Amino acid sequence: MLSEKTIAIIKSTVPVLEIHGEAITRRFYKLLFTNHPELLNVFNHANQLQGRQQAALANAVYAAAVHIDHLEAILPAVKQIAHKHRSLGIKPESYPIVGENLLAAIQDVLGDSATEEILQAWGEAYGVIAAAFIGVESDLYQESAQQTGGWSDYRAFLIDRKVQESDVITSFYLAPQDGKAIASFEPGQYVSVRMNIPGEPYTHIRQYSLSDAPGKPYYRISVKREDGQGTVPAGKLSVYLHEKMQEGDIVWLSAPAGDFTLKQNDERPVVLISGGVGLTPMISMLNTLVESECPRHITFIHAAQNGTVHAMKEHVDSLCKAYPMLSVHYCYEKPTSEDIESSTFAKEGYIDSAWLKTVIPTTDANFYFCGPQPFMKTVHHALRSMNVAASDAHYEFFGPAGSLED
């Protein structure tokens, strides 16, 4: 429990963190990887290069400072990050290392403004926050290992099938090498894939949403090949999976994780909205609803550049024909001549609130959306303009969490 004095000191640093937060987290990661290069085996290097991880951490530190007197307000964010930590294999012994380097970064960036009193207060606060993470993650590790078919850390899986879904997305059907049962999962969850790529000095770990319904003897992930452009680097693991990994090869998986999950007991309609490869958790949710013969009305909305990169379209179209309670709507940014000729999409350009209002039958529903951040901002603002309750709007970022409010 933090003292009133410590809480007051932490709150006094909020304006400083608002200005210098990302400078502190940039310095933090530089110190962390210099002092502990082994942690480069865990962190996503592309997110580091793009500054996404630094921004996400800065936002988390700022939120912790703002809510330091009622940390229960950030518990949902703690749980979300804890799921990712469990899937990555983060253990309690990492927290003192992080704390030490975070305090050093605060001192380096703020200089004389980081008094001994401020550093001591942040040291105490970090201890409380770290304890919360460790506690939540301990429960998640235990739950993961003890469930039927579950395991701790990583487990070997064979690529049973490799199926090209579009010009940029390939599905990998992954079966356990030991032939034993695998853990079930909630539609919307993901697994971490760990690989050692020849010629790369560090292990690469990436999270990929499970793209089929639970209850199968395999997990399926559907991976977009990230070739990179401009200042955005190529995705080393996605490119390696596409180019080098073949049926029969081994990948290492964490047990399923994540709190972006379908509310299966809610009887109201469901609206699934995706952009690009953000459709992968939506397909898992859609397949689950259809396979369970759920009587709920489902609206499936997907945005893609055009038909050549639109994955799983035939599958969704076949479900639409067989399931009367499902309506499907596609939006293509730049449709090809073939798309136009075959009239396979409902809207040209970008998803916007005016169009969404015409295809969403009711706002008294559970909404799930996922895709690139600009897409998610558009959907977020559209749903808010339609007076969709915040508690009914569920979303997940691919990679570090960002903001949908700008």
Q: Mind sketching the topology for me?
A:
Elements: H1 4-12, H2 14-35, H3 45-50, H4 52-66, H5 75-88, H6 94-110, H7 116-146, E1 155-164, E2 169-176, E3 190-195, E4 204-209, E5 219-224, H8 236-243, E6 250-253, E7 270-275, H9 279-291, E8 298-304, H10 313-322, E9 326-332, H11 337-342, E10 347-348, H12 353-359, E11 366-370, H13 373-385, E12 393-396
Helix pairs in contact: 1-7, 2-4, 2-6, 5-7, 6-7
Detailed description of the structure:
There is one protein chain. The protein has 406 residues and is of the alpha/beta class. It has helices spanning 4-12, 14-35, 45-50, 52-66, 75-88, 94-110, 116-146, 236-243, 279-291, 313-322, 337-342, 353-359, 373-385; strands at residues 155-164, 169-176, 190-195, 204-209, 219-224, 250-253, 270-275, 298-304, 326-332, 347-348, 366-370, 393-396. α1 (4-12) crosses α7 (116-146), α2 crosses α4 (52-66) and α5 packs across α7. The longest helix is centred in the first third of the chain and has 31 residues, at 116-146. It is globular, with a radius of gyration of 22 Å.
H-E string:
HHHHHHHEEEEEHEEHEHEHEHEHE
Q: Mind summarizing the main beta sheet?
A: 6 strands, antiparallel
CATH topology of the largest domain: Globin-like
Give the termini separation. Answer: 34 Å
Q: Report low-confidence residues grouped into runs of 5 or more.
A: none
Total number of helical segments?
13
What's the structural domain tally? 3
Helix content: 40-55%
| Annotated CATH homologous superfamily of the largest domain | Globins
Q: Into which percentage range does the β-strand content fall?
A: 15-25%
Count of beta strands: 12
Give the CATH architecture of the largest domain: Orthogonal Bundle
Which class best fits the helix and strand makeup?
Answer: alpha/beta
Shape: globular
CATH class of the largest domain: Mainly Alpha
Domain FAD-binding FR-type: 152-263
Enzyme class: oxidoreductase
Pfam families: FAD_binding_6, Globin, NAD_binding_1
Cofactor: heme b; FAD
